[in-house]
Each structure stands twice: as structure tokens, then as C-alpha cells.
Amino acid sequence: MSEAEAEYFSKDFDWDDLRNDVESDPSLRHHLLPFPPPAAAPAPPPPPDVAAAWGGFHARHHTGKFFKERRYLLKEFPELVSRGKKNPRVLEVGCGNGSTVLPILRGNEDVVVYACDCSGEALEYAKEMLDASNVASIERRFYPFLCDFALHGFPMWLACGPCRETSLRQHCCSSGEEKVELPLRGFDMSQDSSCLGGVDFITLIFTLSAIPFQTMPKALAECFCVLKPGGLLLFRDYGLYDMTMLRFESGKRVGFREYMRSDATRSYFFSLEIVRDLFVCAGFIELELEYCCIKSLNRRSGKSMCRVWVHGKFQKPE
Asked: What is the pTM of this model?
């Protein structure tokens, strides 16, 4: 196994050991308390404009090395580069600046990626990154569009009403793949465009944690609706007791295991049980679900940091 593969597939520590350490540390007790907080605690801030918050986030971090191309995804989710499916369609939800889209397009020359984000700024940066990447046939394989899937759902051209009602068992549109017409590279694709009849894969990479917990069931139901029968949803997100969770102060809590940063972006930290409940209730079949526990070295401080992510693969029933 190569060094890169070992970095993303080894278990540097046991999650239960980390849990015991966290739950026995008095200084971290505020992470374990139920929510809402005691009456004496200050009230949480009003809900911010999510799109504006993430637009500002991407404006601050789109340059430099803050976002790295997520090459590990192709090792973690080899289905994306498998040649078993002809011209697979991938829906990347919450694409940000394109760090997930780029390795998918590089790794499979047959794949077509529909990438959405709630932030127009993020989509602009993603388009810039992809245009500068020299990926083959980028204009025919990359379709970014503006969409807040948790708030408004996905557009009907991904899967129309009859398709959703029949759970995509049969395509309602007889036009075929070659006749689907979509505005190239446009962010506001027409709601009246021919229906795609769903997608083969959905990638949900550090996206679900960024929306309010109470909206997650609706968001996953939307994902279920636009996924073809037998299709896969590939999931990676923040795990419970990840280093970034433990850094939050008590005043940053806006829910149980849910926090808001100073820039008004939010983050939820998942246990395996919560992920399983959310996806199974949405209709998915669990194929893989585990913690990825990686020790990362901070070169400046010399300190070892315990990172925890949740890896999951879920399938829509045939």
C-alpha cells in the first residue's frame, strides 16, 4: 500500500479511546451538555443568510492552499472511476470551489458532473479552477448550477415530477441521453429543460454538516428523489469528537453537536448512529459506514491532532 493510500485508509487510533478521553475531560464538558442551554446562557444569534455566509467564506479562502484537490476520494470511492457504467452522471452537492469535482473529472473521462452550490461566488471560483485545469472536454462534462438543495430542493430538470413520483424506476422522458439540452456552463439552468431522469451517483462531501440539523431529513429526501434506482450516495463529513469540534467554545453552540463559526457558517459533527438513522429514514440502504480516525501533525506547533471523519456509502434500492 502506498503512503497516500495508507494516509486515508489506516486507522491511526481507535474512536472509542478518543471518546473516553473526551468524555472524561472536565474542560470539554460543554460539548456533552444537552441543548438548549440553561436559561442563564445567552440566546443564540438569529439564523444568518447561509448563501451569503458561504459566499464570504469562499471569497476569503479561494486562493492559496486552503482547499486542496481531494484526490483521496477516488481511492475511497473507486466507483466514481469504474468503467462498469457508460457515461455515468454524478451530482456533486455543495461543490464549493471545485476541489471534489476536479479529481472526479480527471479520473474518469466518461463521467459528466452536475455541480451545485448555494453560493454564486463558490461557483465562479469552481468554474475558474476547472477552466484552468486542462481537463479533457470540460465544456461537455461539467455543469455548475446555483441551488440551495436544503431550502428549495433540486431543480426539476434533474428529475421531473413523474420521475420522482415513480421513484425513477422508469424514465418519463423518452428523448434519450443524446437529446437532453442544458445551457452549457450556466449557473441558472432552465427549469423547463428536458428531464435527465436522475443521476447515477451523488457525492455529499462535507456538505450535510453545513446545513441546520432540522433540515437534514428534507435534504436527504431530495437526494433520494434524484438518484436512479441502484444509484449510490457517497458521503464524507465531520465525525463526533473531531479536533475542530473540540476547539469550539461553549458560546458557539447552536444545537446539540451543532456549532456556528464567527463568520456565520455552521458545522454539525456526526455520530455513526445519527448518520445511519438519517439515511435509512430517507430510504437508503447502508453499504458502508465507519469512522476515519487520522492523526495529523501540525508542523508549526509540533502537536498531533486527532481528526475524525465519517465515511459512508448508501444505495437507493433497485
From this structure: 0.83
